[in-house]
Amino acid sequence: MLKCVAKFRGYRLTATASSLFSPISFRSLELKNRIIVSPMCQYSAVQGCASDWHMMHLGQFAVGGAGLLFVEMTNVEARGRISPFCVGLYNDDNEAALKRIVDFCSAYGNVPLGVQLAHAGRKASTRPPWQQREYIPPEQGGWIPVGPSAVAAVKGAAVPQALTNIEITKLIDDFANSAERAERAGFQALELHAAHGYLLHQFLSPLANLRRDRYGGSLPNRMRFVLEVFAAVRAKWPEDKPIGVRVSATDWAQHGWQPEETVQLAIELKKLGCDWMDVSSGGIAQHQDITIAPGYQVYLARAIREQAQIPTIAVGLITRPRHAEEIIANGDADAVALARGMLYNPRWVWHAAQQLGVHVDYPNQYLRCYPTPV
Among 229, 79, 84, 88, which residue's Cα sits nearest to residue 160? Predict the structure, then answer.
């Protein structure tokens, strides 16, 4: 049977005086604007394989006009999943399922796709958020989580098994192998998730990392695992394709990971070929003290951008187009990433363009809805 593919051609009107809608390049990848759809966990995978839900979820953003679209946190081994329903990229079935999504979005959309590689570490084996994220024990289909040290994520949570150096070496290989799979699946950008209390962040933070070997203690030791993972992934990922790192720039907790340490990490990552820092915060400590407001993390992105001389992506309750425009125009960051705002309004980019007086691509099939002056 002949398969008909209505390729996205688009109707382009290029006049723009907007900083938010100006192009930016990372290696060979040129983004047509500075708006990024953040990775958003959907808890809808089957045995680590992306499902039809992901086809629908990502497909709507693939025709939405963003500069870059990220698939959700994608785990490098089965025990690295936050829940049994999270996406993985550690076997052939996982790879085939994601390739199907990439092929679909590429055929019908005009937004490049990236993937965020990760490992949940001690925050693994839990139920979805709408089931209160309760720990799932092995006898109920879960598993024993791992971490840099045998320290639970929160009071009452499962105590992880401390990783041995042999296991750490294998995990570095797992990240590299997943990067190879990502390339075969057709992704154009890659990001490592070292934020929100997941495994890479756990090694960075003295609140989770109590090791006394070469992976714990001093700042260089606590950064070692992240840097080794990045180097291994960069070696496997094509030279012309970019890699960034999402970080929690601060733990918002006493004796935790600090912004000045994030700057040092960014400097070292840049030496290894890191193309951007995606700057978030928190997620590792139950006693974190955060005052949340629109753009509450933007100052961290600006500090890292200026002090480490590396491009940054600002995230965190950025929902208003003019606020996003100001962030880019003021030099606070090089791009913005939206999650909740995009879930609420998958046509955020189109509406932002209208507010800012910019013309953007629409699919030919949707041209009839393009706003015209009355």
Answer: 79
286 contacts 309 by C-beta, under 8 angstroms: no
Alpha-carbon Rg of the chain, whole angstroms? 20
Residue 321: phi and psi, rounded to 5, are -55, -45
Residue 15 pLDDT class (50, 70, 90 cuts): very low
**What's the pLDDT at 10?**
35
> Distance between CA 201 and CA 198 in Å, rounded?
5
Contact 186, 106 (CB under 8 A): yes
Report how far apart the first and last C-alpha atoms of the chain are (Å, whole number).
Answer: 45
Residue 2 in 3-state DSSP?
A: coil
Within 8 A by CB and 6+ apart from 77, the residues are 88, 90, 119, 171, 174
- List C-alpha distances in Å: 217 to 200, 204, 223, 244: 15, 10, 10, 25
Pairing mode, if any, of strands 276-280 and 189-194?
unpaired
Q: How far apart are CA 86 and CA 42, in angstroms?
A: 7
- Which of 79, 120, 95 lies closest to 208 in space, CA to CA? 120
The helix/strand/coil state of 249 is coil
The residues facing 46 across adjacent strands are 49
Alpha helix (H) residue ranges in 330-369:
340-344, 348-356
- Write out the two tokens for 190: 């890659």
Amino acid identity at 157: A
Using alpha carbons, select from 353, 14, 317, 318 the residue that is nearest to residue 326.
Answer: 318
* Residues 143 and 125: beta-carbon distance below 8 Å: yes
Q: What are phi and psi of 89, to 5 degrees?
A: -145, 60
- Which residues does the annotation mark as catalytic? 198
State the pLDDT at residue 11. Answer: 30
**Residues 6 or more apart in contact with residue 210 via CB below 8 angstroms:** 148, 149, 151, 216
In order of their start, the domains of the chain are 24-368 (3.20.20.70)
pLDDT in tens, 158-182: 999 999 999 999 999 999 999 999 9
Looking at the whole model, is its pTM more than 0.90? Answer: yes
